[in-house]
Amino acid sequence: MPAQVPNSLNNWWCPMDCEHAFMGFSYEITACQSLAQLKRDFSDIRNTFSSRYVRLYGACDNKGFYDNVIEAAWENTLGVHALIWFGFDGSNQWQSRRDALFQTLHNNPKAPFVTRVVQFGSEPLFDNVLSHQDLAAQVQQAKSALSDLQIPVTVSEMAYGYQERGGAQDVLDAIDLINVHMLPFFSQIATTGDAAWPIVLNDTNWFIQNGDGKKMYFDENGWPSQTSPGVQNNTPSAVASISSEYGYYKMLDSRCKDLKNAPRGGIGWFAHIYSDKQEPGYGIYDVNGNLKFPFRPRTSC
């Protein structure tokens, strides 16, 4: 990063058309990590794994928390996929989270230089938090509110979330880019992570067919090493294991050129999630801070 915050966003970001392969990690913020912890983790994310982005997951409602995220990202040359978290309690707290985020984005001078996109999520269509018409309207309002900062807006959702709402074409039309949940472990035809490509391809093709050529990212994307109360397979053939989790990421690496052939320069993907401390089973690190398997994914092909 430069010594001083630039005066303009002109030519600040690399074009999304050149982004593909491994992007970075989903990173859960429910623990409201301290600034020091954010800096340590973001340094690891950037320097150990050559990540370009952190995609936030969950919510911390402490005042000033996103300012800390911005500072940690700036210090470690990372972009952020910010998130307006709906949660699972059916409350309207997402509205205050939206307003607080937008206030920070406008008031923190560094915010537009690390915030690559704002997402509505996670899986608001699947969880029926809002009707697809209301969600599309929220996206349009957010795009207007953030237009002076040149921050695009999207929805963090899986293909089925759109499909069960009749395709929710109004949402697909409203968003600036497509952030896809790719969690093939839950498929009715799932087996092991290394064999998940047909499931990945099926959902990818649906978005290609209905997404009007928009840029795509797999943001909540991975395979679990263990089940938990919130992570249960939908078929006995779906295997949750460390080798299956590792196999999934190796499979994505082996399909780098296939993913690169998608619209707008290809699909970039995130690993969900940084640590098992944040979400059991999905982490690259286990609860003791040890890598569960060698992880050095390709950042281009």
From TrEMBL:
<dbReference type="InterPro" id="IPR017853">
    <property type="entry name" value="GH"/>
</dbReference>
<keyword id="KW-1003">Cell membrane</keyword>
<keyword id="KW-0325">Glycoprotein</keyword>
<dbReference type="GO" id="GO:0005576">
    <property type="term" value="C:extracellular region"/>
</dbReference>
<dbReference type="GO" id="GO:0009277">
    <property type="term" value="C:fungal-type cell wall"/>
</dbReference>
<dbReference type="GO" id="GO:0005886">
    <property type="term" value="C:plasma membrane"/>
</dbReference>
<dbReference type="InterPro" id="IPR050732">
    <property type="entry name" value="Beta-glucan_modifiers"/>
</dbReference>
<keyword id="KW-0119">Carbohydrate metabolism</keyword>
<comment type="similarity">
    <text>Belongs to the glycosyl hydrolase 17 family.</text>
</comment>
<keyword id="KW-0378">Hydrolase</keyword>
<dbReference type="GO" id="GO:0000272">
    <property type="term" value="P:polysaccharide catabolic process"/>
</dbReference>
<comment type="function">
    <text>Glucanases play a role in cell expansion during growth, in cell-cell fusion during mating, and in spore release during sporulation. This enzyme may be involved in beta-glucan degradation. Active on laminarin and lichenan.</text>
</comment>
<dbReference type="GO" id="GO:0009986">
    <property type="term" value="C:cell surface"/>
</dbReference>
<keyword id="KW-0961">Cell wall biogenesis/degradation</keyword>
<keyword id="KW-0624">Polysaccharide degradation</keyword>
<keyword id="KW-0472">Membrane</keyword>
<dbReference type="GO" id="GO:0071555">
    <property type="term" value="P:cell wall organization"/>
</dbReference>
<protein>
    <recommendedName>
        <fullName>glucan endo-1,3-beta-D-glucosidase</fullName>
        <ecNumber>3.2.1.39</ecNumber>
    </recommendedName>
</protein>
<dbReference type="GO" id="GO:0042973">
    <property type="term" value="F:glucan endo-1,3-beta-D-glucosidase activity"/>
</dbReference>
